[in-house]
Amino acid sequence: MDTILQFDYSVIFWIQAHMVNPFLTPFMYGISKISSSGAIWIILGLILLGMKKYRLIGLTIMISLFLVLIVGDLSLKHLVGRLRPFVDFPNVRLVATPPAATSYSFPSGHAFSSFAAAIAIYIGFSHIDTRKRILGVIAIIIATMIAFSRVYLFVHYPTDVLAGAALGIIDGIVSWYIGNYVYNYV
């Protein structure tokens, strides 16, 4: 456990010392904000649900976000109960408005939902329209930027984000199978 904490502290304080700057901060805050509560992914999922050719991808995104809510927000966050970095280190100057100090840090819901949706998009386009697989790659790049923004903004430790990303990848894969079954057999 000490090794994990040391890793978290080393990485997050290195980012604070070497990467946080007035040019990058508005971008990081903006990309973090558009993904609050999975908003960007919910909108994308609803748009795809409305398109017959891509309805399965939209369904898969929505299933993946529902699983994020159940597994991450309603279960793991409360079971682990990890405090956020800005609570543990109140003297660090925040560059943006943080979430409520009473909300927990592990796993990162932004990383979890972003990777779940991005993997659902990647798998979906890989199966339905391989020419548009690049959209899945773009979604994964966006998910990575969203996840990084959470550490940059000092609201999550790196392991919160890594765990969220790993859970999101698993969630996206599982959601594809559930969505495929529901779409084809229910």
Structural summary, described in words:
This protein has 186 residues and is mostly helical. It has one domain: Vanadium-containing Chloroperoxidase, domain 2, CATH 1.10.606.20. 73% of the residues lie in helices and 0% in strands. The protein contains eight helices and no strands. It has helices spanning 2-18, 25-34, 39-49, 55-80, 85-88, 109-128, 133-152, 158-185. Helix 2 packs across helix 7 (133-152) and helix 6 runs antiparallel to helix 7 (133-152). The chain starts with a helix and ends with a helix. Pfam families: PAP2. Keywords: Membrane, Transmembrane, Transmembrane helix.
Compact description:
This protein is mainly alpha-helical. 73% of the residues lie in helices and 0% in strands. It is elongated and about 55 Å long.
